[in-house]
């Protein structure tokens, strides 16, 4: 496997004034004693107060990326590499080095996580209020103040605090439970919120409403967010920066507008074109041919080469490193310049970097 | 009108001048389960579908959109005779489906024949396929039912050619697998094949693509539309995503119907309905549909006053959308707007489409 990192293990991600809060370096998750990769040497840094959207199809390893950030890989998976967390006070910890007790505190108090399917995250025999109290007690937080904050969070999420706290999970709609879960994840005032498909299984209107609310929460409480989903257009509404995963590895990372308007990876461009949306001419929406590889036989060379219309012998033999393809934009494709020219985007981007030029059809 | 099925024999048909399926004032009300001590009280009634009339023709496509709990699945199931309506009638080629079931009056088309002409594919293909049967066994059953005289070899041949047609190559390899050895998209193709083997006139696709990755949805919709041409079926396509409904209805030359709390509030050709929505709720669904255009990419405030749907047990009076509608005025609380517009064309149920309505002199609703 070709390494995707430069000599010092870092990328030239633009570091804002505040600097990164999480730096994941060469994270690798293996099963079967190293035979099966489900996360292949991934490096990603998250800036303080930004929203990063991680997009990938089912089975691309995106949930593993989320779990790796909190060192929560399901057994018997083995995680190696480095996940650095920079505390607001300037100290830095490697999450993978933490003891069990330190990890338990880290997970709720500094980085919180929301999974899909809120129903299964709540205990069905306990009222929602009970979950808040238990969480506060387990982390030695003062309950009255904590519950006061819980009420504020619930009303931020357009919920009636007294009614919700006094309800059992089954008494609430899917959208309400999911919002209650988001409030619960924030009750200990973490700095980072990692969300894995937090709106899956909800209808579109509720998904978009929750996204609007997340944006408000992010600004109100200065949160850093990592939002993982298969739904590119959904997270595009919220993300400052986006990262695309394919076959257990990141293949493109860029600021939102760059990724949508001027992506350099043929897979990203195909993904954008395959998305049904209200404005694209119907005749130009087309599916991506072929299937993504299983974790056991990832092809040598670029893992997208078997499905890529631009693939050459080089692509089939040499796994591409990241190329710098713009400001804060990196793309793992040998033929990114050609991709931009030859794979035309089928929607109006109307904004900077909307250079979808090229008159030839892509496939 | 008779047409050849997959085996070349003619499918039976009723009266030619009747729509394929016709719903007239259909109501489906469910009584909520009661506790022991509430025995003598009036039961709570969930009004899942309330007074809907619509026709589905041969080779027709109707895409139903709406939020969770708006009654679109119940309406779909009522349309194909899986759910008995508590009011109104459902006719298949002029034959009342439930009269056929109960043997009331002159039954021209037997219930069994109606049921096999109206098929369903579910959202979760995993749980609709028997996990203990190979694909070839699952697909043999409908052939045994519809063509009891077809031999083993011909049956296999049929199954293989259909599997190839839905893009599962090599067919012989897939036919010998069990459902758990297939991906979500492949399972959905098997479910679609099984429905098609019954030579249906109408297939209800109930959120059939919602569980698939965004990038696979267009492919699955294309497949369903291709097969619609080959097999001459109509589709009722249920989705919560307006962009999918648009794609399916526009390609299938059909209509989009927007449902809210048991009622159809707007129906019409996809492009017209999206470009020029006649109901504020359609506009809300439009807002909810992600857009890649960068100037519109940010979500912004939703165009509703409340983000949660009201309880369908006691739906709001007047226009049911008035509790969330940004345009609601006092009159909307009291009077119920009717579907207006060209019958069979673009229709919507909102007072704002009537320039002379007293809505315009009414005061905005205050929360």
From TrEMBL, chain A:
GO terms for cellular component: plasma membrane. Residues 22-272 form the ABC transporter domain. Its main location: membrane. SUPFAM superfamilies: P-loop containing nucleoside triphosphate hydrolases. The keyword ATP-binding applies. GO terms for biological process: peptide transport. Keywords: ATP-binding, Cell inner membrane, Cell membrane, Membrane, Nucleotide-binding, Translocase, Transport. It is found in: Cell membrane. It is a peripheral membrane protein. CDD domains: ABC_NikE_OppD_transporters. The keyword Translocase applies. GO terms for molecular function: ATP binding; ATP hydrolysis activity. Residues 1-21 are annotated as: Disordered. It comes from the Archaea. NCBIfam families: oligo_HPY. This is Peptide/nickel transport system ATP-binding protein. The lineage of its organism: Archaea, Methanobacteriati, Methanobacteriota, Stenosarchaea group, Halobacteria.
UniProtKB/TrEMBL annotation, chain B:
InterPro entries: AAA+_ATPase, ABC_transp_ATP-bind, ABC_transporter-like_ATP-bd, ABC_transporter-like_CS, Oligopep_ABC_C, P-loop_NTPase. The keyword ATP-binding applies. GO terms for molecular function: ATP binding; ATP hydrolysis activity. Keywords: ATP-binding, Nucleotide-binding, Transport. One of its GO terms (biological process) is transmembrane transport. Residues 1-20, 333-367 are annotated as: Disordered. Residues 333-343 have a biased composition (Basic and acidic residues). Residues 31-286 form the ABC transporter domain. Coiled coil: none annotated. It holds the Pfam family oligo_HPY. Gene3D superfamilies: P-loop containing nucleotide triphosphate hydrolases. It comes from the Archaea. PANTHER family: D,D-DIPEPTIDE TRANSPORT ATP-BINDING PROTEIN DDPF-RELATED, TRANSPORT ATP-BINDING PROTEIN. Belongs to the ABC transporter superfamily. This is Peptide/nickel transport system ATP-binding protein. It comes from Halorubrum xinjiangense.
